[in-house]
């Protein structure tokens, strides 16, 4: 059989561009040596004393932007397929020269030479193509390229031309929101005819939570909220039988992450002005401030506060801590503007937020927690965030490409869970919550507690697989439940919920019921999973079944020994002096012996028996402990040994 034709997927972005392809493990973004998939959509031209000017693309060009403002071209996507008349509002924002070209087009002028937007885009596309060829070790000739849903025919044609100039046959131009939906597997079943793994009985796809309303059964309405570096787009899609229809779009070509940076720059600039009478005017200082602002912003997406320091020279230092709350207050008007545009797009489609079954977040700026929170409030449900928001569009473009290449996306788009899902429990065991072959959508919950006194944080690791030990399962993700009030071991009540929706997206939530604290993670469990891997993991679990069960039992017994001996020591400290000294000594010896046995753990039945015997032999002590605890609770607790 011939190898399937290779078609790559390209997200040609305003600020960043990415290239991706599909292999057995599903869609993959091609990354650089630092693990970054993004190539800045920036081109710099540096004149050379001898010979033609040097053209650089990507990070290097971006770094040169400060010194070479007039010979660095960024945001060329704003120019493509447009006339000078179209761009009147745009021009004041660009630091490079834009002039009229033939047939109502524009050109960028650098160092006396003119470049068309298509040529500049072609340079970026060629850079991406080179990256893919280096990574894949084969020629890349065909691509799917994404464009915003609102791009008109001229802009789409110009994007095609850019592809061609980069030596690529543009097999299809795809809307960015459509690609984002494809990345989450929406509409892929109908389009690809993907068949379930062997041995899995196909079940009819549930109605995906369709509401009584105008969406036909089996169709879904999806909102794609894309907040990038400089632009905001909201698109409302209807997906039915693998067909994507754009119902409406709205947006603002001057609203994005840069504005969040500017809000911080404004704050810092004002304060420096007031405190030191300085105003920031030099381009280099402005650029430094911009870089700092972006760093602070990104830090605040992860932390509650960000601290920084600026050396202003002559012993003047500006030191500041910005809290997340402060940043949110500062940028709330920006977020509200995006929501007003969401309302506009819905109105244009004749819909309300309740008609939207799913909101998908795209663009780096959707990592801002307040953006996520407000979007969830607007649509009345948490949005899809499981995939990297920088990469969603490229991943979807790759999926579209693989469908066009006739490559069966081996991504396991199933109506059942192909492997069990669970969390890692103490000692490295796999605690399954959802068993393999469970029909989706589905939900499972389980109660957990702590094993250490005063524990204020619990780490959760989400696992996939059939084996009993965490180490033998796939690790899908991790999160931490923090800020728990300190409580004795065993007292916290932590409910862990696994919820898989009709699109196969897993939401894991951990909630401590006494304090109400909660945390969670969203995951696409089958991402990167191949049929071959499912079969291997299932086969291994059968072969290893006996050993696995023993291993799991060993972990459980050891946990129990650790817990029981610890509790016994605590009781000895508290009420031990009410026991005859000989008995006390015997219990101390028993604890040591039991721990030694658990460490060796040769014979599990023997360990189990020893644990039971230990329980019997410490019964008297346990009774004393409980009585003391009860007396304390009723307020009658005297000093230990005082009575009885
Ligand atoms: P575009 O689609 O416009 O090419 P992206 O979707 O890549 O751009 O978004 C880039 C923007 O995302 C930048 O403004 C960047 O500062 C912002 N960004 C990236 N990561 C984070 C983060 N962790 N928190 C907040 N903003 C972020
Ligand atoms: Mg984008």
Characterization of this structure:
- By secondary structure, this protein is of the alpha+beta class.
- Among the domains are: 419-531, Sandwich (Substrate Binding Domain Of DNAk, Chain A, domain 1), CATH 2.60.34; 549-634, Up-down Bundle (Substrate Binding Domain Of Dnak, Chain:A, Domain 2).
- The termini are far apart.
- The model is unreliable at 190-214 and 637-644 (pLDDT under 50).
- The structure holds adenosine-5'-diphosphate and magnesium ion (MG).
- Residues 13, 226, 228, 363, 393 line the site of magnesium ion (MG).
CATH architecture of the domain at 419-531: Sandwich
Oligomer: single chain
Count of DSSP strands: 26
User: Which ions and ligands are bound to the chains?
Assistant: adenosine-5'-diphosphate, magnesium ion
- The CATH class of the domain at 419-531, by name, is Mainly Beta
Query: Uncertain segments of ≥5 residues (pLDDT<50)?
Result: 190-214, 637-644
Question: Can you summarize the main beta sheet?
Answer: 6 strands, mixed
Report strand %: 15-25%
**How far is the N terminus from the C terminus?**
85 Å
Instruction: Calculate the mean pLDDT score and round it.
Output: 87
Gross morphology: globular
